[in-house]
Design goal:
Length: about 180
Protein backbone atom coordinates (compact mmCIF):
# COMPACT_ATOMS: atom_id res chain seq x y z
CA UNK A 1 0.00 0.00 0.00
CA UNK A 2 2.86 2.38 0.86
CA UNK A 3 4.30 2.07 -2.67
CA UNK A 4 0.89 2.60 -4.28
CA UNK A 5 0.34 5.79 -2.27
CA UNK A 6 3.89 7.05 -2.98
CA UNK A 7 3.44 6.60 -6.74
CA UNK A 8 0.01 8.24 -6.64
CA UNK A 9 1.46 11.20 -4.74
CA UNK A 10 4.22 11.66 -7.33
CA UNK A 11 1.69 11.48 -10.18
CA UNK A 12 -0.70 13.91 -8.48
CA UNK A 13 2.04 16.43 -7.70
CA UNK A 14 3.17 16.27 -11.33
CA UNK A 15 -0.43 16.88 -12.51
CA UNK A 16 -0.88 19.73 -10.04
CA UNK A 17 2.18 21.49 -11.44
CA UNK A 18 0.56 21.47 -14.89
CA UNK A 19 -2.76 23.07 -13.91
CA UNK A 20 -3.67 26.02 -16.11
CA UNK A 21 -3.33 29.27 -14.12
CA UNK A 22 -6.74 30.66 -15.14
CA UNK A 23 -8.48 27.36 -14.31
CA UNK A 24 -6.69 27.22 -10.95
CA UNK A 25 -7.78 30.77 -10.11
CA UNK A 26 -11.40 29.97 -10.99
CA UNK A 27 -11.30 26.77 -8.92
CA UNK A 28 -9.69 28.61 -6.00
CA UNK A 29 -12.45 31.24 -6.15
CA UNK A 30 -15.16 28.55 -6.13
CA UNK A 31 -13.66 26.79 -3.11
CA UNK A 32 -13.14 30.11 -1.30
CA UNK A 33 -16.83 31.02 -1.77
CA UNK A 34 -17.92 27.63 -0.39
CA UNK A 35 -15.71 28.01 2.69
CA UNK A 36 -17.15 31.38 3.74
CA UNK A 37 -20.29 29.91 5.41
CA UNK A 38 -18.11 27.48 7.39
CA UNK A 39 -15.86 30.33 8.55
CA UNK A 40 -18.75 32.60 9.46
CA UNK A 41 -20.07 29.95 11.89
CA UNK A 42 -16.66 29.07 13.37
CA UNK A 43 -15.24 30.32 16.63
CA UNK A 44 -11.75 29.96 15.18
CA UNK A 45 -10.12 28.55 12.06
CA UNK A 46 -7.17 26.20 11.83
CA UNK A 47 -5.80 26.41 8.30
CA UNK A 48 -2.51 25.97 6.46
CA UNK A 49 -0.52 28.32 4.25
CA UNK A 50 -0.94 26.94 0.75
CA UNK A 51 1.89 26.29 -1.66
CA UNK A 52 1.72 27.03 -5.39
CA UNK A 53 0.22 23.62 -6.26
CA UNK A 54 -2.43 23.62 -3.53
CA UNK A 55 -5.86 25.19 -3.29
CA UNK A 56 -5.18 28.81 -2.37
CA UNK A 57 -5.83 29.31 1.34
CA UNK A 58 -4.34 32.76 1.68
CA UNK A 59 -7.44 34.57 0.48
CA UNK A 60 -9.50 32.54 2.95
CA UNK A 61 -7.07 33.30 5.77
CA UNK A 62 -7.22 37.03 4.96
CA UNK A 63 -11.04 36.90 4.82
CA UNK A 64 -11.12 35.36 8.31
CA UNK A 65 -8.66 37.86 9.75
CA UNK A 66 -10.55 40.78 8.19
CA UNK A 67 -13.78 39.47 9.75
CA UNK A 68 -12.18 39.02 13.20
CA UNK A 69 -12.27 35.21 13.06
CA UNK A 70 -9.15 33.97 14.86
CA UNK A 71 -6.83 32.03 12.52
CA UNK A 72 -4.14 29.57 13.53
CA UNK A 73 -1.64 27.86 11.27
CA UNK A 74 0.42 24.73 11.92
CA UNK A 75 4.03 24.25 12.80
CA UNK A 76 5.28 20.77 11.96
CA UNK A 77 7.05 18.97 14.76
CA UNK A 78 8.69 15.58 14.44
CA UNK A 79 5.34 13.76 14.54
CA UNK A 80 2.71 16.37 15.40
CA UNK A 81 1.20 19.65 14.31
CA UNK A 82 1.00 22.53 16.75
CA UNK A 83 -1.16 25.49 15.80
CA UNK A 84 -0.39 29.14 16.49
CA UNK A 85 -2.58 32.19 15.98
CA UNK A 86 -1.54 34.82 13.47
CA UNK A 87 -2.59 38.43 13.01
CA UNK A 88 -1.32 38.67 9.43
CA UNK A 89 0.13 36.43 6.73
CA UNK A 90 3.13 38.79 6.80
CA UNK A 91 4.22 36.99 9.98
CA UNK A 92 4.86 33.71 8.16
CA UNK A 93 8.36 32.35 7.60
CA UNK A 94 9.63 29.24 5.83
CA UNK A 95 9.65 26.30 8.20
CA UNK A 96 10.10 22.57 7.94
CA UNK A 97 9.51 21.23 4.41
CA UNK A 98 9.94 24.82 3.15
CA UNK A 99 6.29 25.56 4.07
CA UNK A 100 5.23 28.91 5.48
CA UNK A 101 4.66 28.64 9.23
CA UNK A 102 3.58 31.11 11.93
CA UNK A 103 5.84 32.30 14.73
CA UNK A 104 5.43 30.08 17.79
CA UNK A 105 4.16 32.92 19.96
CA UNK A 106 0.39 32.53 20.43
CA UNK A 107 -0.52 28.82 20.86
CA UNK A 108 -3.99 27.82 19.68
CA UNK A 109 -6.14 25.05 21.06
CA UNK A 110 -9.11 23.62 19.19
CA UNK A 111 -12.60 23.16 20.59
CA UNK A 112 -15.92 22.06 19.10
CA UNK A 113 -16.32 25.48 17.39
CA UNK A 114 -13.01 25.24 15.56
CA UNK A 115 -12.99 24.79 11.80
CA UNK A 116 -9.97 22.87 10.47
CA UNK A 117 -9.14 23.14 6.76
CA UNK A 118 -7.31 19.99 5.70
CA UNK A 119 -5.02 19.82 2.64
CA UNK A 120 -5.30 17.03 0.07
CA UNK A 121 -3.61 15.94 -3.11
CA UNK A 122 -6.80 14.04 -3.94
CA UNK A 123 -10.04 13.24 -2.14
CA UNK A 124 -12.96 10.87 -2.63
CA UNK A 125 -15.83 13.11 -1.57
CA UNK A 126 -16.60 10.85 1.41
CA UNK A 127 -14.12 12.40 3.80
CA UNK A 128 -11.01 10.49 2.81
CA UNK A 129 -7.98 12.10 1.26
CA UNK A 130 -4.46 11.47 0.21
CA UNK A 131 -2.06 13.93 1.77
CA UNK A 132 1.69 14.22 1.48
CA UNK A 133 2.46 11.06 3.40
CA UNK A 134 3.76 12.23 6.74
CA UNK A 135 0.50 11.54 8.63
CA UNK A 136 0.44 14.90 10.43
CA UNK A 137 -3.25 15.62 9.80
CA UNK A 138 -4.33 12.02 10.44
CA UNK A 139 -2.69 12.17 13.87
CA UNK A 140 -4.09 15.64 14.54
CA UNK A 141 -7.65 14.70 13.57
CA UNK A 142 -7.75 11.76 16.01
CA UNK A 143 -8.46 14.11 18.92
CA UNK A 144 -10.01 16.98 16.98
CA UNK A 145 -13.59 17.76 18.12
CA UNK A 146 -14.39 20.61 15.72
CA UNK A 147 -15.45 20.67 12.07
CA UNK A 148 -12.93 19.28 9.58
CA UNK A 149 -13.10 20.13 5.88
CA UNK A 150 -10.93 18.82 3.06
CA UNK A 151 -10.40 21.26 0.18
CA UNK A 152 -9.49 19.81 -3.19
CA UNK A 153 -9.84 20.45 -6.90
CA UNK A 154 -12.62 18.46 -8.59
CA UNK A 155 -10.17 17.15 -11.19
CA UNK A 156 -8.47 15.36 -8.30
CA UNK A 157 -11.61 13.65 -7.03
CA UNK A 158 -10.95 9.93 -7.11
CA UNK A 159 -10.94 6.77 -5.08
CA UNK A 160 -8.42 7.09 -2.29
CA UNK A 161 -6.44 4.08 -1.08
CA UNK A 162 -7.01 4.02 2.68
CA UNK A 163 -5.48 2.30 5.65
CA UNK A 164 -6.82 1.95 9.20
CA UNK A 165 -4.92 5.03 10.42
CA UNK A 166 -6.36 7.31 7.70
CA UNK A 167 -8.78 9.70 9.37
CA UNK A 168 -12.02 10.77 7.76
CA UNK A 169 -13.14 14.41 7.74
CA UNK A 170 -16.68 15.69 8.12
CA UNK A 171 -16.87 17.55 4.80
CA UNK A 172 -15.11 17.78 1.46
CA UNK A 173 -15.25 20.91 -0.69
CA UNK A 174 -14.44 20.70 -4.39
CA UNK A 175 -14.58 23.52 -6.90
CA UNK A 176 -17.87 23.65 -8.81
Amino acid sequence: MREIKAKLRRDLISCRKKINKAEKEAADESIFRQLIPFADKAGSVFCYASTEIEVDTRRFINYCLKNKIPVALPVSGDMELSFYYIESTNELCKGRYNIDEPPMIRPAFADENTLCIVPALCADGNGYRLGYGKGYYDRFLIGFKGISVIICYKDFKREVPTEPFDMRTMFTVFDE
